[in-house]
Amino acid sequence: MSPRYQNRIELLQGTLDLLILQTLRWGPQHGYGISHAIRTNSGDILQVDTGSLYPALHRLERQKWISADWKVSENKQRVRVYKLTAKGKKQLESERSRWAQVSDAIAGVLNPAKRESEA
Amino acid sequence: MTFSFWRRQKRERELEEEIQSHLKMAAQDRTDRGETPDHARSAAQRELGNVGLIKEVTREMWGWASFERLMQDLRYGLRMLAKSPGFTVVAVLTLALGIGANTALFSVVNGVLLKPLPYPQPEQLVWLAESKPNFASGSISFPNFRDWQKDNRTFSGMAVYRSYNFNILGLGDAEQVGARFITSDFFNVLGVGPVIGRTFASGEDDIGRSPIVMISEGLWKRKFNASPDVLGKNINLDGTGYTIVGVTPASFDFSGLFRDVDVYAPLGQWTNPLLPNRGAGLGVHGVGRLNPGVTIEQARADMARISSNLATAYPDTNKGIGATLRPLRQTMVGDVRVLLLVLLAAVGFVLLIACVNVANLMLARAATRSREFAIRAALGAGQARLVRQLLTESILLAFAAGALGLLLAVWGTRAALQFLAQGLPRASEVHLDARALLFAALISLSCGILFGLAPALKSRGGNLLDTLKEGGRGESGTRHRAQGLLVIVEMAMALVLLISAGLMLRSLTSLWNVNPGFDSHNVLAFGVALPPSMRNASAAEIRAALRNVDRQLAAVPGVKSISLSWGAVPLSSDDEDLFWIEGKPKPLTDNEKSWSISYVVEENYLQVMGIPLQRGRFFTAEDNENASHVVVVDDLFAKKYFPDVDPIGQHIFLDNKGGRAEIIGIVSHIKQWGLDSDEKETLRAELYFPFMQLPDQAMQLSGSGTGVMVRYDPRAAAIGDSLRAAVKGISAEHVMSKTQTMDEIISDSLASQRFSMAVFGIFAALALVLASVGIYGVISYLVQQRTQEIGVRVALGAKRSDVLRLILGEGMRMAGAGVILGLMASFGLTRLMASLLYGVSATDPLTFTAVAVLLAIVALAACYIPARRAMRVDPMVALRYE
Question: What pLDDT shows up at residue B468?
Fold first, then answer.
C-alpha cells in the first residue's frame, strides 16, 4: 500500500452527493473533473473512488438534481458534462445545512468542554 | 419495450464512452506530470478499478436493474434445469398432476357452484313449490298457481313446468321425446328468447286453447333441417296436431333440470283430467322472478299472505298448504355442494403432497449445489440474490408444470363430466374459462413459492467457509431434519386421502350390498304407447289393447314374466295416492288424509321384481275391472296404519282409484327413494293396485304411454330387440321407448357416489405413489450421505443386518410419525364428509387401521430398496469414497 492511501478518508455515506453538488456549483464539469476537483480542494485527502463516482452521478441525474450534456473538451475529446439544476441547487442548500448540523453535533460530542465554556 | 431497448443501448454506449474519456483524461494528467504514456495508461486503469463493476453499479442507477437481474436469473435457472433433466422431468410431472387435477376440479366447482346462472339478473330467480304437511316441496296445482300469479305483489313473473314424454308421429319412425308442459311466462321469467318464432302468449296456456308447441333447436335441425319455414307447420304429438310457433336455443337446458327436452307445450294441453283440480299433486313445480329490489323474505311473506287467503277460500284443498320459495341456484346445485367442496379439499391435499415432494427434491439438489452457492456468495452475490435465484428456478418449474397441468385439466374436466353427467347439475356450464386459467396460474405461482422457499431459506445461514472446505460432502443435520419433516407431513396427508377413499369405498360397497327389497338382476323396464288412433277409444278398448300387448310380449322367447306398470317405479319415478281408512272418522279435507306411494301393476309383478309376499295373497287375473277393488300393502304401511289390527280384510278409500278397496295381502317394503336415502324419507308406505281396476278415465290416459316391466332369461340374446320387434309386430303405430335394466337404474342412482369414490381413489393412489417416492428419495439420499459412515461401521464389524435395521429404522420412524399425524388429522377431517358416507362411520376403526397398515407397508417397501443398497456397501469402496 502506498503511503498516500493511509491519509485517505473514506467518505461518509451521503457526503459524496454533497461534494458533487458543491463542486458543480462553480460551473459544469465532467466526471474526471469532479473527482479531480474534490481531490485537489481537499488537499489530496478526499479521494473519490471512480466506482462510487459514476453511480452517484447517474443517481443524481435520475433524481434531476443535475443534468448531463455531451460537449467537446479543450483536448478535442467528447466528454459528458454535468451541471446543477434548479432542483439541485435547493438540494445542495438543504444538504449543506444538514452537514453543518451534523458536523457541529460531532464537534460537540468530541469536545464537550469547549461547548460548556461557551455556554 | 423496443423504445426502452434502444434507449438502453444508447446509454450503454455513452457510459462506455464516458468511462473511456475519464481514463484518457487521467492518463493525460499523468503524462503531463512526466510519466511515460504506457505507465500513465496502466496506472490510470488501476486507479479506475474494475470497469465492469463500475458499469454494473452505475447501470443499477438507471432503474432497469431489477428486470435485468430477473432475466439473468431466468437464463441461469433455465440452464440449471436443463443441466439436470431427470430432476426437472420428475418435478414438472409431479406438479403438473397436482395442478392439472386442481384446475380440472376447480373448473367443475366454478361452473357449478361459483358462476351465476346463465340468465339475466339470476339473483332474482326463485324456485317455487307448494309446501304440504308431508313435503316441503310438493306439486303446485294449476288453479293455485293461477291465484299465485294473479294475487302476488312481489314477482315480475312466474311460471310452472311439468315433465312429460311425447310420441312424435308422421316424421319418419315414431319416436319418443322428452317434453315439458309449461305456462306462458316460462321463458320470459328466465329471460331466454327463441331462436326463431315466438314464445307462448298470455292465455295460450289455458285449458281448451288450440294446441301450439315450441321445439328445441336440436329437434328443429334433426327433423326439419333447420328450415325457417317450420313456423306454422304441424307436428303430430301423441296423435294431436300441434302448430309450431317457436324454436328454443340449444344452449337452454334450465341448468340441468331440463336435459334432453325437445318439445315445450302449454300446460293447458295436458289431457290429465286432474289438471283443473285444486288439490291435485301432479309433479308441477315453478320458477319466478322477483321484482327488482324485493328480497326473498318479502316474497315469502307475500306468498304466505296469498296461501292463507286461499286456505280460507278453499279449506277443503288448501288447509295447511303454503308456498316454498328457494333461490333457483340453490335448487340447481342441491346436494353436490358438499361433495364438490370435499373433493376440492382432497385435490388440494394432492397438490400439497406434490409440492412437498418437489420441495424435497429441491432440498436434495440444494445439498449438491451448496458449493455452487458458496462460490457465488464468495464472488459477491448477496443472500437475497441467492434466495431470489432459487425462487426463480422453482417458479419457473411451477409454471412449466402449470402449462402441462392445463393440458391435463382439459382432459380431466372432460373425464369428470363424463363420469358425473348423471349427478351433476349445470354440467353444460363447466368449461376451462379465464377464471380457471387464472386459478391455475395462481396455484402454480404459490406452489413455486411454497416449495422453493424451503431450500431457499436453507441456503441462507450456512457458513460459507465451511461449505467450501467440506467440498460439498458435508453432513448437514438440519437439512436432513427438514427433509424428514416434509416426508412426515407428506405421509400424513396421504393417509388422510387414503382413509377418505377407504371410507368412500366402504360406503359404496355397503350401498351395493343394500337389499333394495327386490331382485334387480335381469329385469327390463320400458314404455309402450298405443297407436294415436286409439286416443278417443273407450276404457274397455284400451284394456283389450293393453291385454293384447301383454300377451304378445309374454310370448317373446326369453321373457319369463311380465307386468304393466303405472305410477311409481322403484328408484326411478314416484307417484303417490291419498287415502283414508274405513272405520276411522271420514276426513273432511285432503290434508287429513294420508299419503302412500302407489304402484299400479299386474298379477305377475311380484315374480318380475322378485318381491317377497309376506302374508295373504297378491293379485290374480281375476282381480279385474269386473271384480271388487283390492289392494296389497307393504309391511311399513301395515305397521304404520294398522299397528293393532290385522290389515288383511280391512278397507281403505283411494280418491283417485275408484274409492273403496280391500287389503288382501302384505308384501315386503322396497326402497323407492334410493338405496341410501329411503330411510330418511317420511313418506315410505307403499300400496299396490291392480292395473285393470284403474278407473276408466285413468285407463284411457294410460293408452298414451304405460310402463312395462319384464323379467327375462339372461341366456336370451338381445332381449330388448326381440321385445321391440314384438311391439312393432302388433302395429307400426305402437311405440316402444328406450329400455333400461333395473340394474342400470340402481347404478344410475349411485352415480354421484361412484364418481366421488373413483375420484377419491385416483387422488389417494396418486398421494400414495407421491408419498412413497418421497420417502424413497429421502432414504436414498440419506444412504448416499452416510455411505462413508456405513463403510466405517461395517469395517468395524457391524453386521449387514445391523445396517439394514439402521436404515429401515430411520425410514420407519418417519413413516410412523406421519401415520400418527395423519390419523389425528383424519379424525378431525373425515367428519366433514360424514354426509357423503353410508353405512360406515366417519371414524371407522377398520378403515383407519387397514389404511394405516397399508401405508406403513408401502413406506417400508420404499425404504427397503435404498436400505439394501446400504447393506451392500463395500467398506473399502466407501472409505475410498473420500
Answer: 56
Rounded Cα distance between B283 and B268, Å, is: 15
- Helix, strand, or coil here: B774? helix
The C-alpha cell of A110 is what?
Answer: 468530541
With CA atoms as reference, report the closest residue to B59 among B47, B68, B48, B50: B68
Instruction: Please write the tens of the pLDDT for every residue from B740-770.
Output: 889 888 887 787 777 778 888 888 888 888 8
**pLDDT (tens digit, 9 = 90+) per residue, B272-282?**
778 888 887 78
Cα angle B763, B767, B771; round to 5: 175
Nearest to B819 by CA among B844, B846, B856: B856
> What confidence tens digit (pLDDT) does each residue in B634-666 have?
999 999 999 999 999 999 998 778 889 999 999
- Evaluate whether B650 touches B609 at the Cβ level (below 8 Å): no
Q: Where are the beta strands (DSSP E) in B530-624?
A: 559-567, 576-581, 594-601, 613-616
Q: Please write the tens of the pLDDT for every residue from B188-197.
A: 999 988 989 9
Query: How much is the ipTM here?
Result: 0.80
- Per CATH, the number for A3-112 is 1.10.10.10
**β pairing state of B125-131 and B261-266:** unpaired
Q: Which residue has the higher pLDDT, B470 or B670?
A: B670
Give the E-state strand segments of B745-801 in sequence order. Answer: none
Domain spans, chain A: 3-112
Chain A with chain B: Cβ pairs closer than 8 A: 57
Chain B neighbors of A58, CB-CB under 8 A = 58, 61-62
Return the residue matching grid coordinates 328454443: B248
Return the SS3 of B140: coil
In this structure, what C-alpha cell is assigned to residue A68? Answer: 448531463
How far is residue B494's CA from residue B826's CA, in Å, rounded to a whole number?
10
**The pTM of the whole model exceeds 0.90:** no
B114/B110 Cα distance (integer angstroms): 5
Cβ separation A51–B61 shorter than 8 A = no
What digits encode the pLDDT tens for the residues B567-603? 888 887 777 788 989 888 888 776 678 888 899 999 9
DSSP state, residue B880: H
Please say whether the dihedral angle defined by the alpha carbons of residues B406, B411, B415 and B420, taken in this order, is positive or negative. positive
Question: CA separation (Å) from B238 to B423, B529, B669?
Answer: 30, 9, 35
How much of chain B is in helix, strand and coil states, percent to nearest 5?
A: 55, 15, 25
CA distances (Å), origin A51, targets B30, B259, B279? 20, 75, 95
Each as own residue / partner, the long-range contacts of residues A46-49 (CB below 8 Å, 24 or more positions apart, any chain) are A46/A8, A46/A9, A46/A11, A46/A19, A47/A5, A47/A8, A48/A11, A48/A16, A48/A19, A49/B49
Minimal Cβ distance to A77: which of B21, B47, B48 = B21
Interface test with B, best of A48, A58, A64 (most B CBs within 10 A): A58
The count of C-alpha atoms lying within 13 angstroms of the C-alpha of B293, restricted to the half-sphere facing its C-beta, is: 1
Contacts of A62 in chain B (CB under 8 A): 61-63
Residue pair B15/A13 in contact (Cβ under 8 Å)? The answer is no
Phi then psi dihedrals of residue B467, to 5 deg: -60, -45
Between β-strands B686-690 and B594-601, what pairing exists: parallel, antiparallel or unpaired?
parallel
Spans of chain A below 70 pLDDT: 1-13, 113-119
- 3-state SS assignment for residue B528: strand
Closest CA to B596 of B656, B649, B648, B645: B656
Tell me which DSSP letter residue B567 carries: E
Task: Select, from the ranges B11-15, B500-504, B535-539, the one with the highest average predicted confidence (pLDDT).
Answer: B500-504
Structure-derived torsion over alpha carbons of residues B705, B710, B714, B716, reported in degrees to the nearest 10? -70
Quick one: average pLDDT of B471-488?
64
Map grid coordinates 382413509 to a residue: B499
- Which member of B17, B50, B58 has the closest CB to residue A54? B58
